[in-house]
Amino acid sequence: MRVALFITCFNDTLFPNVGIATTRLLERLGQRVVFPQAQTCCGQMHYNSGYQREALPLVRHFVEVFGRAEAIVAPSASCVGMVRELYPQAAAHSGDPALIAAVAALTPRVYELSEFLVQRLGRTDVGAYYPHRVTYHPTCHSLRVLHVGEAPLQLLRAVKGIDLVELPNARECCGFGGTFAVKNADTSLAMLSDKMRAVLDTGAEMVCAADTSCLMQIGGGLHRQRAGVAPVHLAEILAATERSGA
After folding, report:
1. Residue 218 — left, alpha, or beta (φ > 0 → left; ψ -120 to 50 → alpha)?
2. Cβ neighbourhood burial of 141 (10 Å; 0-12, 13-18, 19+)
């Protein structure tokens, strides 16, 4: 299958290794990965901050760039949630019938990575090897917007060598929420403190998630405490093999 990688601006700017891991994983599973170089921000930051009108050109651009792709895969539940949940709203507000139709045709082909692997490819064992003690944080967008369910955990449970431990109160938000962490810093910090306590209680070496934005929040807090727990994206675990020296 020809898969268009939607890297997201957050990963492209701050976590390029996640995009590399996603590509390596998909190609190992026999997918032909292409990277549309004209892609830009999906507009989530603008839309969620109240600038819906300003986000519309980005919606149009995304449709132009990815409109012919057979499947669009992103290592970000947050950005996929923007496209699938809010693009139809943005298109409706534009009053442009052509855009409304184009978005409706596009959104069913946009997948978060674990969704694509489990639901589209029917794979849970992807041949990964990761000999570390890991706990998994289900991000708010993966839980409440995309409803990916057990897909990430199914994939992690099939990883050879992994010691996967359950995260207490896993469904609680980490406190990032984009600009929420800036506008409501004290509340965000309190939520982060609860999440870090839960992570540390597992005794894990790594905390895993499907969004690097949440991993930046949690990992940053753990780093400042010198807790010795590292953040790792789901794609990085699934891309690791015995041959890669994970």
Report:
1. alpha
2. buried
- Answer whether residue 221 is part of any domain: yes
Angstrom distance (rounded) from CA 125 to CA 21: 16
| CA dist., res. 159 & res. 187, Å (int) | 36
| Residues of the chain above pLDDT 90, percent | 78
| In a shared domain, residues 94 and 179 | no
Angle at the Cα of 69 from the Cα atoms of 83 and 28, rounded to 5 degrees: 100
At 22-37, the pLDDT tens digits run 999 999 999 999 999 9
Q: Is the overall model pTM greater than 0.85, yes or no?
A: yes
* Residue 126 belongs to a domain: no
Most confident of 72-76, 146-150, 174-178, 179-183: 72-76
Residues 51 and 138 in one domain: no
